[in-house]
Amino acid sequence: MPPSTELQLPHTLTTARTKRGLSQQQCAERIGMDASRLCALEKGRQKSPNQAVIDRIASGLELSEREKIALRNAASHDRLIHHAQDEFNPATVKLLANALTAAQMLSESELLDLNDYIFGLVTAKRALTHIKDRNTTP
Hints:
Blueprint: H1 9-19, H2 24-31, H3 35-43, H4 51-60, H5 65-87, H6 90-105, H7 108-136
Helix pairs in contact: 1-5, 2-3, 4-5, 5-6
């Protein structure tokens, strides 16, 4: 699987490890993981692990509560992106990645406004398509 610029876990995991001054080998030993698997996760070459593995990583790195949440969010984000990469074209994957990032950063009110905006775009596109179809049908 090729790495994707839409992924969050590689950066989040690498940052947590290097912040603690650990090599990949040292980190892998702490969390009970093969160093090659850790390397693949940090490079985005392996799909995000399940929640139990993420929790083991968080525990082994002694992450703060904020860092644990960031790691869990990044892993959840990437699991969805990996699934989307199997089902959709790259432009759709990018849109989904941006929407997931927005969901983590925006307030509920801002998310509702964004949703309304997107719904308006979809509604307008449907209306234009309907008009076009009506005008081209004999």
